[in-house]
Amino acid sequence: MRTRISQMRFFKCPCGGIGIRARFRSVCLDRHAGSNPVMGTKKSKIIQKKLFRHNMKILLLEPYYTGSHKQWADGYKHYSDNEIRILKMRGQFWKWRMHGGAITLAKEFNKMSWQPDRILSTDMLDLTTFLALTKHRTSGIPTAIYFHENQLSYPWSHYDRDVKNKRDSHYGFINYSSALAADRLFFNSKFHLDSFVNSIKSFLKQFPDYQEKETSKVIEKKSEVLYIGIDFKEIDKYKVSKDDDPIIIWNHRWEYDKNPKLFFDALEIIKKEGYKFKLVILGENFSKTPEIFNRSKKYFKDHILHWGYADSFEEYAKWLWRSHILPVTSNQEFFGVSVMEAIYCGIWPILPKRLTYPELIPNNSDNFYGKKEELCQKIKWAIKNYQMIDTKDLQNKAEMFCWKNMKNKYDQSMRKISTNFGYLFEQ
C-alpha cells in the first residue's frame, strides 16, 4: 500500500509560532499490501517518530576540541536524535582559537556540500567572523552559542601577560559581539547566565562613547539555561570497589582558578593533627603549573597513591570509583563536570557555598562550607565517617545530568531557535 507523506520544513508564523510547510510524495509505508496505518494508531505514531528522528541537520563548531568541550560535543552528537556534524580544531592556544579559529572553520565549512538546518557553536568561536565569511551559505540559518565559560566574568590570572599589557578586553568583546549575533544563547548554569549578563554593563563602561548598555537586555532575552550532558555510561564501564583506607581526591585542572593552595593548606593542617588518609591528584598539568603542586608532592609523599594526569579514561574512572572525599576549593566554576563525575561515583563532595554548586546540589547543607576552618572540619568529619556516609541522594542528583535525560532538552531547544531572536533592536 502506498500513501502520501510529507517532507516537512519549519518556518516562522506571523502569529509568532512555528508553522510547517509540507511537500507531498508517494512512498510505501509498509512492505505488506493493505497495511496502510490510520492516523492516531500505534503504528502511525511509530512511523511519525521515525520521520522526525533525523529531522534537523546541526553543524557544531568547536575550535577548542579537548577536555569538557570535547566530551560535551561528542556526547551531544552521540545521543541526539538529529544529524550532527562537528567541525573542530585541536584544543590548544585558546587565545589564538578565539581570534583565528573562525577563519579556519569557515574555510572548512565552505568546502562542505552538506548544508545544516541549525548552527551551534561554543563560546570559543568568534561567531561574527564565521558568519561573515560564510554568509553566502549561512544567511537565514538559525544560530546558537553554548557557553561553557565566558571571558567577561571569568577571573584573569595576574600572571597573564595580556593582563599586564592591558589588552585582555578583546576576548570578552568576542563573547559579547558573538552573543549579539547569535539567535539563541545557552548557558551551562543559571549562575553562569547571570554572571555574564551582569558583567556586560560594567564591561561596556570602559569604552569612551556609544556604549550600547541596553544590549545586555537583548542578550538576556534570548538566553536560557541548558545544563551540560554527561556520559556516565562510560564511567560505569570501569566501576570498582572503594578502597579500605580513606582517599582524598583532586580531579581538576592544575590552575590558579581552582585554588590549589587552599586545598593543600587544609590537608596540611589535617595531617599535622594526625589524621590518616591517602591522596590522589588527577587533572591536566599545564606549562604554568602553580608552585604549590611541586611543594605538596614532596610534603605529602607518604600519602600519595597517584600524582598527575591519568593516562586513560579507564584509569581516571577507576580512581573516581576507588576514592571517598572531594574537597573543592575553586574560585571560579560555571558548572563543574569533574565534580559531578566524582559525585556520581559515590564520592562525598565538600563544596564552597557559592558559584554554581548550591544551584546544582540544592538542599545539601552538609556538603557546603564557608571559611577555611569549616572546610577543615568537614574534611576531618568525612575521614572519620567515610565508611558510613550515604551518597545515594547525591548520586541521584548527579545522574539528572546524564545525556539520557538531557538530550531531549537539547533537541527541543535547538528546534525552537528562531532567527527573529537575532535582531539587535525591536522594530
Task: List its traits.
alpha/beta, three-stranded parallel beta sheet, Rossmann fold, six-stranded parallel beta sheet, 3 domains, 18 helices, 427 residues
Describe this protein's structure.
Helices cover 41% and strands 18% of the residues. The chain has helices spanning 42-53, 67-79, 94-111, 127-133, 135-138, 161-164, 169-181, 190-204, 215-221, 232-236, 260-272, 291-299, 313-322, 337-344, 357-360, 372-385, 392-399, 403-415; strands at 2-12, 18-28, 57-65, 83-90, 118-122, 143-147, 184-187, 223-225, 247-250, 278-281, 304-307, 325-327, 348-352, 368-369. Helix 11 (260-272) packs parallel to helix 12. The strands form four sheets. It has a six-stranded parallel β-sheet with strand order 4-3-5-6-7-8, with helices on both faces. The longest helix has 18 residues, at 94-111. Helix 14 (337-344) links the parallel strand 12 and strand 13. It folds into three domains: 2-53, no CATH class; 57-230 and 405-422, Glycogen Phosphorylase B (Rossmann fold, 3-Layer(aba) Sandwich); 232-401, Rossmann fold, CATH 3.40.50. The protein is an alpha/beta fold and 427 residues long. The radius of gyration is 25 Å and the shape is globular. Residues 1-39 and 47-53 have low confidence and may be disordered. The protein is built from 18 helices and 14 strands.
